[in-house]
Design a protein that fits this description.
2 copies of one chain form a homodimer.
Chain A lengths: L2 E2 L6 H4 L5 E7 L2 E7 L2 E5 L4 E5 L6 H8 L1 E6 L5 H8 L8 H5 L3 E2 L8 E2 L4 E9 L3 H4 L1 E11 L9 E3 L4 E10 L6
Antiparallel strand pairs in A: 1-10, 2-3, 2-6, 4-5, 5-10, 6-9, 7-8, 9-10, 11-12
Chain lengths: 177, 177
């Protein structure tokens, strides 16, 4: 179902700034949170920086296990993405509560999310700025794409549950990678 | 013309992941580059992380002066944004070449860009990860918005000059800030 994606193309998923889901696993229990504070740091191997607040239940799992999956949802998952962001893994199993299907990853313990059109298996590669800013540098070690989801439209958070949905695509002559 | 924007709202501009322009100034000469690798790190005071490659002429100016302006263009500036990304301040004055109007900032030497709908005056607040990743943490110290540009649509880079333009806005009931 999911097809492997070349690591050289990972930046094309995250550089546009979509809202993503982040899964973790600890002591046999998986969790998922909603995240918008992330950016590319290096093309290949793909490095991604992200900020995970200590207020998130996921923070301790990410810090302790140094593994996560970044799953990219399209707009049809927006209601689930917001519900995921509005609740805590301290209280509920969000996969079950919101109908997100965990799928085993190849190289990390946290699950992929079946409904997302892309899934990135990550290891923490640098925790130097975690204490100061909750900023993790992740390395993407394996990437998956769902070829059945054609031209998925992602969502971009403007605050307080307001999102811009991807509109038309434009192509300009560019030397930029 | 530009109106001051509360620093508490800065994250609403950058969290959605728009392509931005970054201005610097050194030895009396301003420069501008195109940037997509940035993220919010803290709400207020607003902290922003960004990656500026050492291959960019702007890198040395940002590193030496520790000041920049992040200017946010709407889609109508897309051709200028791409031209800015395809050329170097080593060779040309990009403001003049591409018709971008520098406007003096209030608290930093690099200029605002008159055509952009938002401009953020920034100081480098942390350079700890510059040597390793070219990653700067910036503090936004003053923010400006152009009230004449209503509902500006931003662009999001998918690689090689392909951009998603903001489409429809959706609003979901959320407790997320």
């Amino acid at each position: 179902m999911m097809k492997e994606l070349s690591l050289s193309k990972v930046y094309q998923l995250l550089e546009p700034g979509p809202v993503v889901l982040l899964t973790t696993a600890r002591k046999g229990r998986a969790n998922v949170m909603t995240m918008s504070w992330h950016m590319m740091v290096e093309f290949e191997p793909p490095l991604v920086a992200c900020v995970v607040s200590g207020a998130n239940h996921s923070f301790a799992a990410l810090h302790a296990t140094r593994e996560c999956v970044i799953a990219v949802p399209s707009v049809r998952l927006a209601p689930k993405v917001v519900k995921t962001g509005n609740s805590s893994g301290r209280d509920i199993d969000k996969f079950e509560a919101f109908g997100l299907t965990p799928v085993p990853a190849a190289q990390v313990a946290p699950p992929l999310i079946d409904e997302c059109f892309a899934n990135l298996e990550c290891k923490v590669s640098d925790a130097a700025l975690v204490n100061k800013y909750n900023l993790f540098v992740l390395e993407v070690i394996k990437a998956w794409i769902d070829p059945a989801q054609k031209n998925p439209k992602t969502i971009h958070h403007h605050g307080y549950g307001k999102f811009a949905v991807d509109g038309r695509m434009i192509k300009l002559k560019s030397r930029m990678r």
